[in-house]
Design brief:
This protein has 218 residues and is an all-beta fold. 2% of the residues lie in helices and 44% in strands. The chain has one helix and 19 strands. The longest helix is centred in the first third of the chain and has 5 residues. 22% of the residues are buried.
Length: 218
């Protein structure tokens, strides 16, 4: 039985070909493991999202589908420390090394591994999509490498269009802000007011419908 804990395991040298054929489940959805599979000796394996599962070889990431076929070869340079790459709304967020290991760049790729140019060149960080919405971070053009700077945070749709009424501007912010991943349930997601560090709830248009007056929310 090829269960979810197995595919989530992070171990060295995993040979997917040794799995036996027959019924299996991923995130509660039944899939069939073919009798013969392409052999993948991977360093790390994620779990299935939207029918694709990430695997890494020599620090480069690729994806295979539920039939064991490699659909994206291991060519994606995903920065460690943020988990493994996953697909959401048909797009996968990839963090690539920037000028320093703590200052990565971000981009989105499609199910073929091709870059989807929906982020402006000024964007330095982003979240994964959830129900068609992601958050992005831009430094103001006046911001330099100084300790305190001005940053803009706003929501985008899957075409990269900024959603009205979602922009937050942080002035004299100490250090680079960390984005809070939106995760929608019943049309609402916990969201942060980055100026006050308080939490409320946004709808799928990125607008607060429950004011950010809380020190924590879930």
């Amino acid at each position: 039985m090829f269960t979810r804990p197995v595919i989530r395991a992070v171990i060295a040298t995993i040979s997917i070909a040794i799995l036996s054929s027959g019924p299996a489940y991923t995130q509660g959805i039944p899939i069939t493991i073919p009798a013969t599979l392409q052999t993948i000796h991977a360093d790390h394996v994620g779990e299935f999202h939207e029918g694709l599962c990430a695997f890494s070889i020599a620090s480069l990431w690729g994806f295979f589908d539920t039939k064991g076929k490699v659909v994206i070869p291991p060519v994606l340079d995903h920065v460690a420390g943020r988990g493994y790459p996953t697909f959401h709304n048909g797009l996968c967020l990839v963090r690539t090394p920037g000028t320093t290991s703590s200052n990565p760049r971000v981009r989105f790729v499609d199910r073929r591994g091709a870059t989807v140019p929906i982020l402006s060149a000024a964007v330095i960080d982003a979240t994964q999509f959830s129900q068609g919405l992601a958050l992005v971070l831009e430094p103001d053009p006046t911001t330099t490498a100084s300790i305190a700077g001005t940053y803009h945070i706003y929501a985008i749709d899957t075409l990269g269009k900024e959603l009205p009424g979602t922009r937050q501007t942080l002035h004299e912010h100490l250090g680079r802000p960390t984005l809070h991943q939106p995760l929608f349930h019943n049309g609402l997601s916990v969201a942060e007011d980055y100026a006050t560090h308080l939490f409320g709830y946004i709808d799928t248009k990125g607008v607060f419908v429950v004011a950010p007056n809380y020190s924590d929310a879930g």
